[in-house]
Design the sequence.
């Protein structure tokens, strides 16, 4: 060191790209980078409901690789039948582990594919989204989805648009302000809201879709749980279906989406809007249930003819969750990247923000900006908001932080 004081600091590496930059800064040989990079990325992967004998083999295999696996205290003696397992290791160790699992008996081979899929999806920086009218590369920047509610009772903008012409003008203005998509809804999904007849929803929504389709070039989304409403909106120019029930409410919705080629947003919701915020809101594992639910809906959709490229996922902020559950979902949003599909988040002016900051929906724009920033930094690339012009700037700053 020739008398110079040694400096030491911890490297805060959030991604494989950060690790690559660090190695290049040290001027490591290219071959050395290739060897060392997988050693710098550490992963923790949760496997749920593993048979005890399998869990013990997993732990032994991980230890043999210089990694580890956490299992339940009673799993070692198999006094319980099943246990969750946390794999802990570098990317290199996890990859080596799944290679070994592919050669093992006792159902261990079945562990190989899900973990490999997770690793593949974690490495994605973008995803192709296919609608009925175009292909969109999602990931290079955050896309802003502007909200137009033709409902008299929505929690924030209920009754704002008294005529279809007013709503169309607002949609055009949103696009001028930077909206990348417009989401049009005719039925309120606020807690405690009642469903409306199909005819009324069509009367509210279709004139807006028809009016905007001829005036703007960005994709139109229809926010509906009803297949006939979706089918009509798609025929009039919409190309995305935003179904808060994840196509559970109407058993014809999957057929409509599959036949039209529309994109679809699958969202987690426990219960229906009328009752979703009543009763017990506790979860044994909040993120586990959200992920399990979305995986089942994705798998079912694919079996029914909907391509993975048509699918986006939404954790459902405000839908059957406590205020702090919503905050936790944003904080751990990156866990949803395991699907390899664009993550849509809609925090705009919701009550969980008021729980933290206080104030009415009209007074929650600062809290919305913070939630949007955190969601983008944790993996969301489609943000559904009321305040397009403001949140476009917030997203641009968050994108700069992510890609710095």
Sequence:
């Amino acid at each position: 060191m020739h008398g110079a004081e040694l400096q030491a600091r911890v490297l805060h590496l959030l991604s494989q790209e950060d690790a690559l930059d660090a190695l290049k800064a040290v001027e490591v040989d290219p071959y050395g980078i290739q060897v060392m990079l997988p050693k710098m990325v550490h992963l923790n992967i949760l496997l749920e409901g593993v048979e005890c004998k399998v869990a013990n083999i997993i732990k032994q295999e991980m230890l043999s690789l210089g990694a580890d696996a956490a299992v339940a205290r009673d799993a070692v003696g198999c006094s319980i039948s099943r246990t969750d397992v946390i794999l802990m290791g570098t990317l290199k160790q996890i990859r080596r582990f799944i290679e070994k699992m592919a050669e093992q008996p006792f159902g261990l081979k079945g562990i190989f594919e899900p973990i490999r899929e997770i690793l593949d999806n974690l490495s994605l920086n973008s995803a192709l989204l296919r609608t009925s009218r175009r292909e969109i590369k999602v990931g290079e920047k955050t896309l802003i989805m502007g909200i137009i509610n033709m409902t008299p009772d929505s929690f924030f903008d209920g009754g704002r648009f008294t005529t279809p012409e007013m709503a169309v003008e607002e949609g055009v203005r949103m696009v001028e302000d930077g909206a990348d998509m417009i989401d049009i809804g005719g039925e309120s999904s606020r807690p405690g809201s009642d469903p409306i007849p199909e005819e009324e929803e069509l009367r509210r929504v279709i004139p807006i879709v028809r009016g905007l389709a001829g005036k703007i070039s960005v994709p139109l989304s229809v926010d509906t749980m009803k297949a006939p409403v979706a089918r009509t909106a798609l025929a009039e120019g919409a190309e995305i279906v935003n179904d808060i029930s994840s196509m559970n409410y109407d058993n014809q919705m999957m057929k409509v989406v599959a036949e039209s080629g529309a994109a679809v947003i699958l969202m987690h919701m426990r219960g229906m809007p009328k009752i979703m915020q009543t009763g017990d809101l506790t979860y044994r594992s909040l993120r586990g249930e959200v992920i399990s639910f979305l995986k089942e809906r994705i798998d079912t959709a694919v079996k029914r003819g909907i391509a993975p490229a048509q699918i986006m996922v939404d954790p459902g902020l405000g839908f059957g969750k406590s205020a702090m559950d919503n905050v936790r979902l944003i904080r751990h949003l990156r866990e949803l990247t395991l699907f390899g599909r664009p993550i849509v988040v809609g925090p705009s002016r919701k009550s969980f923000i008021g729980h933290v900051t206080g104030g009415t929906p009209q007074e929650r724009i600062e809290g919305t900006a913070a939630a949007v920033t955190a969601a983008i930094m944790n993996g969301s690339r489609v943000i559904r908001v009321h305040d397009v012009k403001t949140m476009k700037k917030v997203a641009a700053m968050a994108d700069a932080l992510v890609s710095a």
About this structure: The chain has two domains: 41-122, 127-403. The chain has 14 helices and 13 strands.
